[in-house]
Amino acid sequence: MNASTRPAFAPRPSNRRHGRPGRLLPLLAGAAALLIAALPAKAEETLKMAIAPFLPEAELNEAYAPVAEYLSRRLGETVELELFPNYLSFWEATRGGSDFDIALDAAPVTDFRVQRQNWQVIARFDGEVTQSLVTRDDDLILSPRELVNQRVAVQPSPSVGALVLYQLFPNPVQQPTLVFERTNRDVATAVLEGKARAGVIPTPLVGGYPGLYPVITTEPLPFLGFSVSPELNERARKALQQALLSFAETEEGRRILDEQQLTDIVPATNRYYRGNAELLIGTYGY
Predict the structure, then answer these.
(1) % residues pLDDT > 70 (the chain)
(2) Radius of gyration over every alpha carbon of the chain, rounded to an integer in angstroms
(3) Which residues pair with 256 in a beta bridge?
(4) Which residues neighbour 60 within 8 Å (Cβ) at sequence distance 6 or greater?
(5) What sign does the dihedral 264-51-175-274 (CA atoms) show?
(6) How far, in Å, are 155, 173, 178, 259, 261 from residue 164 at the CA level?
(7) 75: burial class by Cβ within 10 Å (0-12, 13-18, 19+)?
(8) Alpha helices of 96-229 — where are they, by DSSP H?
């Protein structure tokens, strides 16, 4: 039986120890080319951008998907939103190492990432934000002290609402009974429906709920900040910062900010948020 008819499973005759490289090499090269052609193309790099769950997931997706799409076009790589159903799942993901590339977050947790995880702040939404302790306008409350042992709705810690509430009631034996809600909108609804006598929500939301009355308004905190993981190299970090700051410089960027009712995106550094992580003292995992 000659080589041309030998079955593929037959052992090679022992007296033929050397192949014929003149014919074998072209065959191997052709096979390698076919294998390479059959391999899937390298997946496009994806950057994950986490957003704190201060509003319902659907609302956050509607507001920030255009932001992520704009950044993807400017960077030439996909920016994908990473959303969370509630603050408990968000905090678990955060304190466990923040396994994403970009975070849009409130001042306390932004500073936490900087101080504990070596993240870098690269931009922020312009302005400051306050929180309001609200009740129904037909339930006259003049002081937070009247709410001791009363039901007060809030997002779980480390939401800014919860952190503020603990500042308002520092004595653990003179605190309200907390009613935890998934989002700030759920907090407002709980107050209006009588599930809780009061709640803490960002002041800008108060005007959207007729029937709510702000008892007190807190001191302002820096507005939401964009920070990036230390795993992101300097070149990628600078490119992302430029893309964020370009919102104010391009017609498309300005349109997105206007349509989603977002303030301008301006430069920011770690120093701007320094000290805000102190609000997390006493929080589990801090």
Answers:
(1) 85
(2) 28
(3) none
(4) 51, 53, 54, 81, 83
(5) negative
(6) 11, 17, 13, 30, 25
(7) middle
(8) 107-117, 160-168, 184-192, 203-206
Report which residue type is found at 10. A
Is the Cβ–Cβ distance between 106 and 53 less than 8 Å? no
Is a pLDDT exceeding 90 seen at residue 251? yes
Give the torsion through C-alpha atoms of 104, 110, 115, 120, to 10 deg: 40
For residue range 48-96, list pLDDT tens digits in order. Answer: 999 999 999 999 999 999 999 999 999 999 999 999 999 999 999 999 8
Residues present in the chain in total? 286
Backbone angles phi, psi at 281, to 5 degrees: -55, 130
The whole-angstrom separation of Cα 184 and Cα 134 is 12
Cα–Cα distance, 133 to 140 (Å, whole number): 13
* Residue labelled with tokens 């034996």: 173
The residue to which tokens 């919860």 are assigned: 162
d(CA 25, CA 31): 10
Q: What is the pLDDT of residues 104-154, one digit of tens each?
A: 999 999 999 999 999 999 999 999 999 999 999 999 899 999 999 999 999
Q: What is the secondary structure of 92-109 as a DSSP string?
A: HHHHTT--SSEEEE-HHH
Per the CB < 8 A criterion, the answer to whether 157 and 87 are in contact is yes
At residue 26, the pLDDT reads: 46
Interstrand relation of 198-202 and 131-136 (parallel, antiparallel or unpaired): antiparallel
* Paired strand residues for 105: 225
Q: Which residues contact 27 (CB under 8 A, 6 or more apart)?
A: none
- Identity at 73, one-letter amino acid code: R
